[in-house]
Amino acid sequence: MAKLKYGIVGYPVKHSFSPAMQNAAFKELGIDAEYSLFEVEPKDLEAFLGSLKAKGISGLNVTIPHKIKTSEYLEKNGSLDDNAKRLGAVNTIKVTGGGLSGFNTDGPGFYRSLLEDLRIEPEGKNVFVLGAGGAAKAIVMYLGNTPKKIAVYDVDPGKTGELADHYAKYFDAGKLRVVSGESEMKAVLGESNLLINATPIGMNGSDPSPVEKTLLHPGLYVYDLVYNKPYTPLVKEANSMKVHAVTGLGMLLYQGAIAFEIWTGKKAPVNVMRRALREALQQEKEDHL
Ligand code: NAP
Predict the structure, then answer these.
(1) How far apart are CA 214 and CA 189, in angstroms?
(2) 70 three-state secondary structure
(3) Pick from 155, 177, 181, 284: most CB atoms within 10 A?
(4) Is the pLDDT of residue 28 over 70?
(5) 205-254 pLDDT, tens per residue?
(6) First to last CA, the chain
(7) Å from CA of 217 to ligand 1 middle
């Protein structure tokens, strides 16, 4: 049998950690497959998606800037699972004889990491989401009605407004609160059980923590989506306040593990994938020294 083909499509995709993680998983389970990078410009995306079967590609991850356009394409030329349809964004495609199916594993990956790594169940909790971009939207739309309340703050009020409108189409509108200023943010954060940093603050070496240390109260749990270092500024400050905190490495791992399970129908070897991810991150760090 020919080697199975998988990969990630984006523009650009050079710095993706997915090949290291997925190829390690295929090797571990003895699956003869290769996961590659597909750098496709936005103008060529439709033609690329239309050629997947002819190219013999069995599955894909989809990343920036193609997640929304891929969802629109599959709405007409394939199928979408409920989560991807509600979100309007696809990060995983499975190609079968029947056609192309779209999924979004960002929300489920986050949820699995929340339970496994931070060990908090969001049901009935007050959740505060900092940032209202693509990652925040995937998380908020996946959490849906599960938390008691969800508060969202972004420096760009247009983004929080768009997220709130989208959320209200599917879930209890009164559950999501748009936080509109620093003082309101401080008050709402004080009543929150779980803080999620869905901004890029913390990725760069000189970044401060996105939240003042004094706002990290005992009993709060902190999930920082930033994953490019073992301890982000927010995780460090949380740790110094004895507040439980993790980086986003687990979300990256589990969104990939769930994609692997969708493609292969087999349980993902998460420990092997985690190790491959850590090595790839370490390698990237050394390359930038
Ligand atoms: P995005 O679409 O750019 O959204 C980030 C949002 O945060 C933007 O609207 C940004 O506003 C806003 N923001 C910036 N500084 C802020 C502040 N101090 N307070 C409130 N809002 C602020 O980015 P994204 O794709 O959602 O990704 C966000 C982060 O999550 C990135 O670091 C990314 O690497 C990470 N991520 C991790 C995973 C994982 O698997 N762990 C998955 C996806 C994303 P402006 O645009 O106006 O600055």
Answers:
(1) 11
(2) helix
(3) 177
(4) yes
(5) 899 999 999 999 999 999 999 998 889 999 999 999 999 999 999 999 99
(6) 42
(7) 23
Burial class (CB in 10 A: 0-12, 13-18, 19+), 198: buried
Q: What whole-number distance in Å separates Cα of residue 97 and Cα of residue 146?
A: 36
Chain-centre distance for alpha carbon 100: 21
DSSP line for 240-289? HTT-EEE-THHHHHHHHHHHHHHHHSS---HHHHHHHHHHHHHHHHHHT-
Residue 267 pLDDT > 80: yes
**What is the rounded CA–CA span in Å between residue 172 and residue 154?**
21
- What does residue 132 show for φ and ψ, rounded to 5 degrees? -135, 35
Q: Does 154 sit in the ligand 1 pocket, CB within 6 Å?
A: yes
Q: Which helix (DSSP H) or strand (DSSP E) does residue 122 occupy?
A: none
For residue 5, count other CB atoms closer than 10 A to its CB.
18
- Annotated active-site residue 67? The verdict is yes
What is the predicted pLDDT for the residue at 216?
95
Alpha-carbon distance of 149 to 251, in angstroms, equals: 22
Exactly one of 5, 14, 67, 229 is catalytic; name it.
67
Burial of 272 (0-12, 13-18, 19+ CB in 10 A): middle
Q: Which ligand 1 atom sits closest to the C-alpha of 203? A: 32
How many of the other CB atoms lie within 10 Å of CB of 172? Answer: 10
Q: Give the DSSP H or E segment for 7.
A: strand 4-10
Residue 12: cis peptide before it, omega within 30 degrees of 0: yes
